[in-house]
Task: inverse folding
């Protein structure tokens, strides 16, 4: 990781960081998303048992990495994130879990990798690529480029699975999803406004900006256009989905 990387100051955060302090993320994201752990666990179950090399795009605090390593302790994970404080927090979490030798941190912008794989120096020949709560920060044009780059980076038979929020399919569904979030906050003895008051102000960084959601259908079409087969949606809960293919 670069020692000279700039950290957003005060209440400013990179897209995907959500909270100014990385230590607040694991608790806070579960306050915002009722099925956060279930979503990640479903993604992990979609990875073949014989996987050796895994690429994770937007690793955040390392929650998905940890679930992957607990299930595939002999696998090697290359974890990419452009937020240095998130990478540092994740690295310590992985070290404490005893997987330090199985986890490689890469401070890089996966949007840049989508445009020029040589510039970002992330690598190739992976058995699986995964991402959670990260790709929705790219424009649709960049999402397609990223899916194409992921397809090129995978070994034959390799898989890609993404866990991400999606754009509501209609105004009706937008209202349904909003009500579900509000009810989840109330169940925790709070309000959605109170929980969101802890969230930092997201500023654009590299190719990523605050939420640029796309519908699930559009992203499934992008995957097919990028050369993925067996495109599927093994899990969906309101405006969250796990989707991908091989």
Result:
């Amino acid at each position: 990781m670069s020692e000279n990387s700039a950290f957003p100051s005060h209440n400013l955060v990179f897209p995907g960081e959500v909270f100014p302090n990385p230590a607040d993320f694991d608790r806070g994201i579960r306050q915002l998303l009722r099925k956060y752990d279930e979503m990640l666990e479903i993604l992990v179950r979609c990875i073949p048992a014989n996987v050796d090399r895994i690429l994770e795009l937007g690793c955040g605090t390392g929650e998905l990495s940890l679930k992957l390593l607990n299930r595939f302790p002999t696998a090697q994970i290359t974890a990419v994130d452009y937020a240095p404080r998130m990478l540092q927090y994740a690295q310590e979490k992985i070290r404490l879990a005893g997987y330090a030798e199985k986890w490689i941190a890469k401070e890089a912008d996966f949007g840049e990798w989508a445009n020029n794989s040589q510039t970002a120096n992330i690598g190739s020949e992976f058995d699986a690529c995964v991402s959670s709560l990260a790709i929705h920060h790219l424009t649709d044009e960049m999402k397609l480029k990223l899916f194409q780059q992921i397809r090129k980076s995978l070994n034959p038979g390799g898989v890609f699975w993404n866990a991400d929020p999606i754009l509501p399919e209609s105004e009706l569904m937008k209202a349904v999803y909003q009500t579900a979030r509000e009810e989840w906050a109330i169940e925790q003895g709070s309000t959605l406004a109170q929980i969101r008051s802890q969230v930092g102000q997201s500023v654009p960084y590299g190719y990523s900006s605050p939420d640029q959601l796309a519908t699930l259908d559009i992203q499934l079409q992008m995957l097919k256009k990028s050369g993925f087969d067996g495109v599927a949606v093994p899990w969906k809960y309101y405006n969250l989905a796990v989707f991908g293919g091989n």
